[in-house]
Amino acid sequence: MGKMEIPPGTLYMLVLRSLDELGPMHGYGIAQYIERMSSAVLAVEEGSLYPALQRMLIKGWVKAEWGLSENNRRARYYRLTAAGRRQLTEEIADFQRVMEAIVRVIQPA
């Protein structure tokens, strides 16, 4: 089975969780981490990752600063804020509630 798009509504949660685990990270590193941790099932498309990071900056869930990547290229590093950590907790709780509801529907009694 090939890579799958990240389910709608879960990208924020996955990015916030990655930053919670890794500390400050650039976009490419976040995408690599999600792919690695999902055993290469989830693919993070740049076309959805960077707009999502931009929206998270506006919401105050992440902060960004310029730095040098591992190969000495300028990269924008994102880090989780306190508001982002609170949002992550909320996103995980909502996701778990939805998953439990889906399981109840798809698994016969």
Per CATH, which architecture?
A: Orthogonal Bundle
Structural category is: alpha+beta
Number of domains: 1
CATH topology: the name is Arc Repressor Mutant, subunit A
Would you state the CATH class? Mainly Alpha
Strand tally, please? 5
Would you identify the regions where 5 or more consecutive residues have pLDDT less than 50? none
Q: Over the alpha carbons, how many angstroms does the gyration radius reach?
A: 15 Å
Termini Cα gap? 29 Å
| Approximate strand percentage | 15-25%
Describe the strand arrangement of the main beta sheet, using strand numbers: 2-5-4
- What's the name of the CATH homologous superfamily? Winged helix-like DNA-binding domain superfamily/Winged helix DNA-binding domain
Estimate percent helicity. 55-70%
Task: Return the average pLDDT rounded to an integer.
Answer: 92
Which H/E pattern describes the elements?
Answer: EHEHEHEEH
Shape assignment: globular
Task: Give the biggest beta sheet.
Answer: 3 strands, antiparallel
Please, how many helices? 4
